[in-house]
């Protein structure tokens, strides 16, 4: 095998060596000491120094450790790489902060990280890329598929003094991974942009456990989680045919802007669960997204993927799954803003908001999944009648407090529940005075939307009845198709799974 | 050693390459790495016995095995932790040759997932 030296992109030094100082440019000549050199580590199947991406990454980490002022970049030529790459920021004598790992071609489908038959430390390779305790990591122009866990996964642990700040995931594709496509956990800020994901057993995009300044932060304290929030941006992404388009368990400071979420079980789902720290989710902005046709019944045998989720908890022995046929769900959200989205063609509800009823709900011990102080405003529902959402455009379980609805499409429909509570109380207009977390309640059955009654837990007009439908594929029994077929939208095609005979028993 | 070699060839089990080449005593004790617990959470071994952590099939969350504290005389402490996380279809085996108390956590879920192994002479 022909070995090539790493490419040293060291323009000023080369120019000086060649006596070409003038070509280096006046700016470089004026401040040569501040110019960072970039060492490129090239990986390819044949003809490069590194035949695996992992070897190139390791070499880059060693180089950066020895050259503190230099930058390292791993460039991957097109090909299929059957491996799981680990970028371990805790490793001694390696430095991965600021590392760039990118396919050389902008067509992300040309640089494939293949999980099938890939081996890792613990057996089957778990992730296309797993980055642990790394700041400023950049992943670009790649496709990760068929991994045991996730496509691209970056995380840090509170416990071990780890850190994960300001990652960038750009122009990535993730498909067929067991859990998540693009996954960031316990990170301060980052970007997931220009990327896409399909056929994940949970969500294509996931931001989890946003850390707080105080490790012992508690929502009941009334303190801000981060005093100077470091935001995560999701922009220009496409998520389709996943259990969830976006999931954000206990996520905070996430801007989800101008993306498309379609043909999933549900589209955008910030949520609060005990499984991760820093409950609840909140202070997110969901703005100007297209959220449509999220009617993929992944509980059916013919689904191209199956859920790995354990749902939201249990009630009366029934598993509470995520509801399907819904565009946007706020589950136990605090101070989220849902503004200016186009939400249409979802067969159950357009935008639904509800709490986890505290200690009676297995998933939310500590009662930290209250829906409070959210704004649902200026959304365009059902393409103004051309492609309506099913049962209702807007749905709220009448728990929590301080939530408001305003300036959504004038013909929007609102779920009324049992009619005992006026719509103006279930969906108060904006603005509303914020309520304290302690004063808000996570249980309120008076409107018959959270649950019909303690004796009637199976009513599919309620959130607990619908999400607890047993068998789960029967959720679609109460879907409402208001048009014979969806009008065309930007070249996308609706994808629905047809049940086998007898599979859905309404 | 034959068993270890065979497992290494199959790639089914990760073992610490730098661990002392001592033959494990008997069959490894199995510990389940599940959402969100180690099972069992307490284990008592004899010096030279092994533990095999096996990630549960039903898991939906990533977990690792991380040595939080061990005997003062313990060498190569890093080899008692996994470098990476896994959700399922994963195993991690380690032989304990130094007596004392070992405390493990999952760094992803440190408050929920912890276990103690006591190794006796």
Rg over C-alpha atoms of chain A, rounded to the nearest angstrom? 24 Å
Query: What is the CATH H-level superfamily of chain B?
Result: Cupredoxins -  blue copper proteins
Largest interface: A-B, 33 and 28 residues
Largest sheet of chain B: 4 strands, mixed
Strand order of the largest sheet of chain B: 2-1-4-6
Second-tier CATH architecture of chain B: Sandwich
Number of domains of chain B: 1
| Proportion of residues in β-strands of chain B | 25-35%
Shape category of chain A: globular
Mean pLDDT reading of chain B: 84
Number of helices of chain B: 1
Topology summary:
The complex is a heterodimer of chains A (506) and B (121).
Chain A: E1 7-9, H1 11-17, H2 26-30, E2 38-43, H3 53-66, E3 71-76, E4 79-81, E5 85-88, E6 100-103, E7 111-114, E8 119-120, E9 123-124, E10 127-132, E11 138-145, E12 150-155, E13 165-175, E14 180-185, E15 188-193, E16 196-198, E17 203-208, E18 232-235, E19 238-240, E20 244-249, E21 254-257, E22 260-262, E23 266-271, E24 281-282, E25 285-287, E26 290-292, E27 313-315, E28 318-320, E29 326-331, E30 333-334, E31 337-339, E32 342-344, E33 349-354, E34 375-377, E35 380-381, E36 392-396, E37 404-406, H4 423-426, H5 463-467
Chain B: H1 2-10, E1 29-34, E2 37-39, E3 42-46, E4 50-55, E5 66-69, E6 91-95, E7 100-105, E8 114-120
Parallel strand pairs in B: 1-4, 3-8
Antiparallel strand pairs in B: 1-2, 4-6, 5-7, 7-8
Structural features, described:
The complex is a heterodimer of chains A (about 500) and B (about 120). Chain A has about 500 residues and is mainly beta. Chain A is built from 5 helices and 37 strands. In chain A, the strands form 5 sheets. Chain A has a 21-stranded mixed sheet that branches. Chain A has a 10-stranded parallel sheet with strand order 5-10-12-14-17-20-23-29-33-36. Chain B has one domain: Cupredoxins -  blue copper proteins (Immunoglobulin-like, Sandwich), CATH 2.60.40.420. A 4-stranded mixed sheet of chain B has the order 2-1-4-6, with no helix packed on it. Chain B is globular and about 35 Å long.
């Amino acid at each position: 095998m022909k070995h090539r030296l790493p490419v040293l992109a060291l323009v000023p030094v080369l120019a000086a060596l060649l006596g070409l100082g003038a070509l280096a440019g006046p700016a470089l000549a004026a401040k040569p000491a501040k110019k960072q050199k970039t060492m490129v580590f090239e990986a390819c199947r044949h003809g490069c120094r590194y035949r695996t991406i992992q070897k190139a990454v390791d070499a880059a980490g060693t180089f950066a450790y020895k050259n503190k002022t230099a930058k390292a970049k791993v460039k991957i030529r097109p090909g299929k790489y059957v491996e799981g790459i680990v970028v371990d920021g805790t490793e001694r004598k390696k430095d991965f902060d600021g590392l760039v790992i990118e396919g050389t071609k902008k067509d992300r489908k040309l640089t494939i990280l293949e999980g099938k038959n890939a081996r890792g430390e613990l057996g089957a390779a778990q992730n296309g890329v797993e980055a642990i305790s790394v700041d400023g990591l950049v992943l670009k122009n790649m496709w990760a598929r068929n991994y045991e866990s996730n496509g691209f996964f970056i995380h840090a642990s509170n416990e071990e003094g780890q850190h994960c700040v300001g990652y960038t995931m750009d122009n990535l594709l993730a498909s067929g991974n067991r859990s998540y496509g693009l996954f960031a956990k316990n990170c301060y800020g980052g970007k997931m942009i220009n990327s896409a994901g399909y056929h994940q057993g949970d969500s294509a995009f996931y931001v989890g456990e946003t850390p707080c300044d105080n490790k012992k932060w508690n929502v009941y304290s009334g303190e801000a989680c981060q005093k100077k929030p470091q935001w995560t941006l999701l922009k220009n992404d496409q998520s389709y045919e996943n259990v969830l388009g976006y999931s954000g368990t206990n996520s905070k400071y996430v801007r989800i802007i101008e993306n498309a979420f379609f043909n999933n079980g549900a589209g955008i789902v910030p949520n609060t669960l005990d499984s991760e720290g820093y409950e609840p989710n909140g202070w997110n902005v969901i703005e100007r997204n297209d959220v449509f046709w999220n009617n993929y019944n992944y509980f059916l045998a013919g689904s191209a993927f199956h859920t790995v989720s354990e749902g939201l908890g249990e009630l009366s022995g029934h598993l509470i799954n995520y509801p399907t046929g819904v565009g946007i769900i706020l589950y136990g959200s605090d101070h989220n803003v849902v503004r200016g989205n186009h939400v249409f063609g979802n067969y159950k509800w357009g935008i639904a908001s509800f709490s986890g009823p505290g200690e009676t709900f297995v998933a939310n011990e500590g009662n930290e999944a209250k829906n409070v102080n959210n704004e649902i405003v200026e959304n365009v529902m059902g393409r103004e009648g051309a492609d309506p959402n099913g049962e209702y455009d807007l749905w709220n379980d009448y728990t929590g407090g301080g939530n408001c609805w305003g300036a959504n499409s004038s013909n929007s429909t609102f779920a009324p529940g049992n009619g005992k509570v006026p719509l103006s109380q279930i969906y108060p207009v904006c603005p509303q005075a914020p309520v304290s977390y302690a004063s808000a309640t996570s249980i309120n059955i008076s409107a018959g939307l959270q649950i019909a009654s303690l004796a009637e837990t199976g009513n599919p007009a309620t959130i607990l009845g619908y999400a607890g439908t047993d068998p789960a594929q029967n959720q679609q029994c109460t879907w409402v198709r208001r048009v014979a077929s969806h009008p065309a939208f930007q070249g996308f095609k609706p994808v629905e799974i047809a049940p086998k005979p007898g599979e859905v028993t309404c | 050693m034959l068993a270890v070699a065979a497992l290494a060839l199959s790639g089914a089990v990760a073992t610490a390459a730098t661990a002392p080449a001592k033959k494990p005593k008997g069959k490894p004790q199995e510990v389940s790495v599940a959402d969100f617990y180690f099972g069992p959470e307490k284990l008592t071994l004899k010096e030279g016995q092994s533990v095999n952590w096996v990630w549960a099939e039903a898991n939906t969350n990533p977990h690792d095995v991380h040595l939080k504290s061990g005997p003062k005389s313990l060498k190569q402490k890093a080899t008692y932790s996994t470098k990476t996380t896994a959700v399922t279809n994963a195993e991690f085996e380690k032989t304990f040759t130094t007596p004392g108390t070992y405390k493990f956590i999952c760094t992803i879920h440190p408050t929920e997932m912890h276990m103690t192994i006591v190794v006796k002479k």
